[in-house]
Amino acid sequence: MDNLRYAYLGDAVYELFIRKYMINTLGIKRVKDLQENAINYVSAKSQVRILEKLINNNLLTESELDIVRQGRNANSHSSKSTDIVTYKKSTGFECLIGYLYENDIERCNYLLDYIVGNKL
Fold first, then answer.
1. C-beta separation of 9 from 96 below 8 A
2. What's the domain count of the chain?
3. What domain range includes position 12?
4. Whole-prediction pTM value?
5. Is 36 left (phi over 0), alpha (psi -120 to 50) or beta?
6. pLDDT, tens digit, for every residue of 1-29?
7. CATH of the domain at 61
8. Cα Rg for the chain, rounded, in angstroms?
């Protein structure tokens, strides 16, 4: 699968994980509250902040960092809601999640649990 397909899959996996976390773990019931809280995790800026913390805390392997770089450098379209650098970095994050979901679900779940458990 190419990097943009991994990013597309990673976006869906990550969004679903965060939604389930907010409903099942945080107990948020109102859709408006769910949408407001989701921004802390799923916006491009939030994904970049989380990715940078994962990197700064040395939680990603060299091969995972390569996947992030490849996803970041993939030929993607820009976003109207954020600058190109933020958009590309968030695409790298989504690419990592999609890749791990397809190839190492245990590692994917570990990182997702770490993100919400440590409030990154």
1. no
2. 1
3. 3-117
4. 0.92
5. alpha
6. 799 999 999 999 999 999 999 999 999 99
7. 1.10.1520.10
8. 14
